[in-house]
Amino acid sequence: MRTATVDREGIRGPDGNLPWTAFREDGRVRWPFLGTYENFRLLDPLTRFIAIAVEALACEFDPNTAILLASGTGCLATDRLFEESRHAVLRPALFPYTLPSSPMAAIAIRHRVTGPGLCLSIAPDDTESPLAEAHRILAADEAPAVIVCVGDVVPGETMSMTATLVRP
Amino acid sequence: MGNRRVFVQGSGAICSLGVGRVPFLDAIFRGESGVGPFQRLSPKEGPEDGPEEGAEKCVAGAVAAGWADAERIARAVIEEAGEADAMILATTKADLSGVVGEGAGEGVPYRLLRRLHSRGGPSAAVSCACASGLAALALAGRWIRSGHADEVIVVGVDILTGFVLDGFRGLLALDDSPCRPYDASREGLNLGEGAAAIRVGTTPSEIEVIGWGESNDATHVTAPARDGAGLARAAQLALDRAGLAADEIDLVHGHGTGTPFNDAMEGQAILRAFGQTPPPLCGSKGQIGHTLGAAGVLESMIAMEALRRGTAPANVRLETTDLDAAVVLPREPMALPRSRTAMKWAAGFGGINAAVIFQIA
What we know:
The complex is a heterodimer of chains A (168) and B (361). By secondary structure, chain A is α/β, with parallel strands linked by helices. Chain A has 5 helices and 7 strands. Chain A has a 7-stranded mixed β-sheet with strand order 3-2-1-7-6-4-5, sandwiched between helices. The longest helix of chain A is centred in the C-terminal third of the chain and has 12 residues, at 128-139. The relative contact order of chain A is 0.22. Chain B is globular and about 55 Å long. Chain B has helices spanning 21-30, 70-81, 108-116, 132-146, 162-170, 229-242, 260-274, 285-288, 295-309; strands at residues 6-15, 18-19, 86-90, 123-126, 151-158, 194-201, 207-216, 251-253, 281-282, 311-312, 334-335, 341-348, 352-360. Chain B contains 9 helices and 13 strands. Chain B is α/β, with parallel strands linked by helices and 361 residues long. Classes of the chains: A alpha/beta (168), B alpha/beta (361). Chains A and B meet through helix 3, helix 4, strand 5 and helix 5 of A and helix 3, strand 4, helix 4, helix 5 and strand 7 of B.
């Protein structure tokens, strides 16, 4: 299994420890850093962290790879922003990112993976059940590999995302 | 991976067309519609964030029938379907209790699952947008085949909230008139609310879940792939898993949201998956609205009932379609020449596609 984690400290993955802006600086991937959270520019905090964590796995993916996203807080940060906007000026672009399948889509598009997608809402600190589910997907021969992203990203509260590539 | 067979053990439903499986399904096959102005029996009923009475012209409300919240309607359908040790919840935002209100701050689906699941077996909360219900059924099938669980109740639930109404309205996806899935004049969807449960297990029964397939378009965050390739791939994976040829499917119960892009995509997908002589395609969101996390479960019940009755339900309000002429879209209930196997499919934000196949055992 390859694993990479992104949190306030930076990136820890197969390429070692890096500052969390490393991929922008080395040009590997710029899109998670375009715009700011405030002006949104298509990406919410959860998507940004997932994008960087998956990038930090530093590998190619089979096109039929599955993606499994599991989070305790899910899209809470965007939920709150969208809820606030409802009482001020509605921000429709936020709404799709109140659903965890949207961050998942960003990864699927970026890495051209078209395998099954599964988003789970899990108990806080539950890191084992998503990995167990990934192994069941593999055992069922429903995908050749599974990108498992587990974490919570709520700015000011908790920000950690771990991506794991699970293969047979 | 085990090869245990997966059978439907029970089901339950609450939506705008009725409380209970039988009234719901009878109304579907009579062609009734629960879409209309939002009304409450009492101003005190329903979620705090719910729409004002009369404010929504075209929704399919279940709360209007006196069912106050997501947890309550979920418990009711669980009771009707029969409990199981394992539970999988499918929802998008449920009652938003994790976002607003007292104790907010954790994931909405898991928060509701924790309240509903009192037994000690495995559990999961699936939030795959509009494909949540079918993703949950696929997950349940995987759990049973693998031996992770012997019996699983899959519960889909979502209710009308201002949050969700504003979200879809902001995306210009709502039709202020009763929606017209697959019709050339379609302009958008009507939101619905409801809950449904399907209990699956290993005990042989009338209907078997014989296959499922899931895929991602990997093309756009919200819009479906225009060519239908992703949904067709999910259908093909389900066929492969079931060991069936395309011409062995007798009916496809579609997603049929009434949005221009979704329905056009499905028209492409059914030809990709089934060729130029596809099985009939029918949808039910013109009758019950788009019930989001509940949709896949509620509409799977319709697909199974179509097999039992040997009849495809009508696509209500369909007059003239702009889909390919080869796509068979019943305008009235249609007797099926053969009614052994049905596919239910769905697509959701995030490019998620799912298909599940049911067969008379």
